[in-house]
Design a protein that fits this description.
By secondary structure, this protein is of the alpha+beta class. It contains seven helices and 17 strands. InterPro entries: PsdUridine_s_RsuA/RluB/E/F_cat, PsdUridine_synth_cat_dom_sf, PsdUridine_synth_RsuA/RluA, PsdUridine_synth_RsuA/RluB/E/F, PsdUridine_synth_RsuA/RluB_CS, RsuA_PseudoU_synthase, S4_RNA-bd, S4_RNA-bd_sf.
């Protein structure tokens, strides 16, 4: 049976502080690294200079002068994001963000949660939220192979054979998009509904691919992310995802085995 290589004697026990803070729900690893660069993170009163700092725990660590508490159990929420909200904590232009709606949508004991990935201003549908920065990172990584399913309403004409060709991927303006499972659901004249499942989640991927096919997208709804479906969750509402299927999914995610098609978890 394979074993883990022995830990180098020169390397202290523990994890990088960026990983510890992400796990504690302070922010994603990338955001934590930026916070450290800005001098906002300290250990025993001394400002840290590198996210590579190895610590056994978060004892003595402060962010913006406030002590960091130990990580809570991982929680996962599904939110039906309406169109017109920015997927960010704040917007320099003053536009409403998802947190405007989440104040009333989340349970009072939800604590701080972070969105998994982003939905554009005009894209609606399923947005996952978690208090665990490591879970957030793994759910977002293209290497995790987690499918995201969208329904797009578009104007124009396209053949099912053109959509089926996307299974081989497509290159648009020098950007390579991986395999896409696309199907024409229904059409009425030149108005179409198309379902698309992607695994990379590149910026505006669905819109760009459909525009490449000569279609104009006028509504885009994310209906699935990994094993989680939007279902009949009302617009603007959030629900905590619970149960054995969720626990199994998080365990598989930790092992790197979370790819697979949508299924409905028990809540």
């Amino acid at each position: 049976m394979p074993t883990q290589p022995p830990r180098s004697e020169s390397r202290p026990e523990g994890d990088r502080i960026a990983k510890l803070l992400a796990r504690a729900g302070v922010a994603s690893r990338r955001e934590v690294e930026r916070m450290i660069a800005e001098g906002r993170v300290a250990l025993d009163g001394k400002v840290l200079e590198t996210p590579a700092t190895i610590l056994p725990d978060l004892k003595g660590v402060t962010v913006d002068g406030k002590p960091v508490t130990a990580a809570e159990p991982t929680r996962l929420f599904a939110f039906h994001k309406p169109a017109g909200l920015i997927t960010a904590e704040r917007d320099p232009a003053g536009r409403p963000t998802i947190y405007t709606a989440l104040r009333n949508a989340l349970p009072k004991n939800a604590g701080r949660v972070m969105p998994v990935g982003r939905l554009d201003l005009n894209t609606e549908g399923l947005l996952l939220l978690t208090n665990d920065g490591e879970v957030k990172r793994k759910l977002e990584l293209p290497a995790s192979g987690i499918p995201r399913t969208y329904r797009a309403r578009a104007f124009g004409e396209v053949a099912q054979s053109q959509l089926e060709d996307l299974i081989e991927g497509v290159e648009i303006d020098g950007v390579r998009y991986g395999s896409i499972d696309a199907n024409l659901e229904r059409s009425s004249g030149r108005n179409l509904w198309i379902e698309m499942t992607i695994t990379e989640g590149k910026n505006r991927e669905v819109r760009r691919v459909l525009e490449h096919l000569g279609l104009k997208v006028n509504r885009l709804i994310r209906v699935g992310y990994g094993p989680f479906n939007l279902g009949d969750l009302p617009r603007g509402q959030a629900v905590e995802l619970r149960g054995k299927p969720v626990e199994r999914f998080l365990a598989d995610l930790a092992k790197g085995n979370a790819g697979g098609g949508p299924r409905r978890p028990r809540k």
